[in-house]
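Exam prep: given the inputs below (a chain plus calcium ion), describe the expected output before reading on.
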Amino acid sequence: MGNRSISSVLLSATLALAAAHAWGGAAFSSVSPVDPFPVEGGPTDGVFAYDDGSAFWLIWDGTSRGVWFDLEDFVPGACAAEVDSLEFWFYHNSSFPWDTASFLAEVYSGDEGGPATLIAQVSVPAEHYAPCYAVFDPPLEVPVDFWVVVNTEMSGGGWPSLLMDDGPNFTGAQHSFPLGDMGDYLIRVRGDALSGLSRSTWGRLKTLF
Ligand SMILES: [Ca+2]
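Solution:
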């Protein structure tokens, strides 16, 4: 038992629904429902996000959790992007206290099969129920398929705990792993998508300067 066991307070109809998923007993020690509430800055222009802006689940499963971004979901014809920042939303529940607020924000190339090559890794302090940013200046160039991962190796229990919405996203496909069959992590990307033409222009500029 210990502080990772679920308290009776949290044994709600929502949790009963979660129990219907086939994760075995581990699910009860790594997922907790939160009262649905909106978070700032839902998906708008320049923000790539699969979540719907309403937090529903708290998750601290495993040592990493990530979102697979396919830029063509947002900008048809995109072949790359310049990423200005990553945005993460965490939530500290006193029933499941964090042993650390530190985590590594990571960006990888890779399609839905999983993260492939590490592009960037930044240490970011997590804050309770507030947007946490990893900022790239100059912007980080990423391919059309890439992953943004919360690496919690610094924690003994998968903390800080990340927020997730409830239900599928606008694509109908799972983009959050693991446990993304329940919803979408509140992990967002700000930046500019590049078409084939704009990318080649950018590449030339980069070469010149
Ligand atoms: Ca969703």
